[in-house]
Amino acid sequence: MLKKIALVAMGGLFATTAMAQSDLFKADDLVKYRQSIYQVMSAQATVLGAMAKGDTEFDAEAVHERALNLGNVSKLLGETYVPATKGVKDSNLLDSAWDDLDGMGEKGKAFGGALQELIAVSGEEGFDKKAAAPAIVKVLKSCKACHDDYRAD
Ligand code: HEC
């Protein structure tokens, strides 16, 4: 019943070549778009985190759904990371990130890997809170690891 197909394309989180479609957006709008994606991710992460901590009732199917949501929205991030957004005032992406795209890409990959694991394990029969908690924490830690290095605040 929980066996859903976990289709998450996490490859190429950060585009290195300009994509024609992202040329359709203004830099300011791309930053709003990016931040909105992160807000959607944050809502999923909040629900997952609360379940891992036991603040809300554990629901295996909901974990799987939230994990899939994270995968679906996070794959849109790549097109918001275009160099034209570098000077946008409201962006909290550190300028230094542009000099270390490989490093930031690694953080993105670590997040993608942790998320893939959560999607896989939460789709298995018998998935329970004991299995969920460490897998969720790993995803949340991967968010923070990137923020620590590449986000201002
Ligand atoms: C590979 C790096 C990276 C990963 C992984 C990452 N973030 Fe972020 N996050 C950023 C950067 C950079 C910004 C700032 C973007 C900007 O302002 O241009 C940001 C911004 C945010 C914001 C603020 C959005 C706003 O309205 O300004 C939230 C909330 C957030 N991230 C949540 C998350 C959550 C939750 C996860 C994990 C599920 C996550 N992020 C994973 C790099 C990352």
From TrEMBL:
- Gene3D superfamilies from the UniProt entry: Cytochrome c/b562
Protein's UniProt name: Cytochrome c
Signal peptide from the UniProt entry = 1-20
Annotated organism of origin: Oceanisphaera pacifica
SUPFAM superfamilies from the xrefs? Cytochromes
Matches recorded under InterPro entries: Cyt_c/b562, Cyt_c_II, Cyt_c_prime
Which Pfam families has this protein been placed in?
Cytochrom_C_2
Which UniProt keyword terms apply here? Answer: Electron transport, Heme, Iron, Metal-binding, Signal, Transport
Cite the PROSITE patterns for this sequence.
Answer: CYTCII
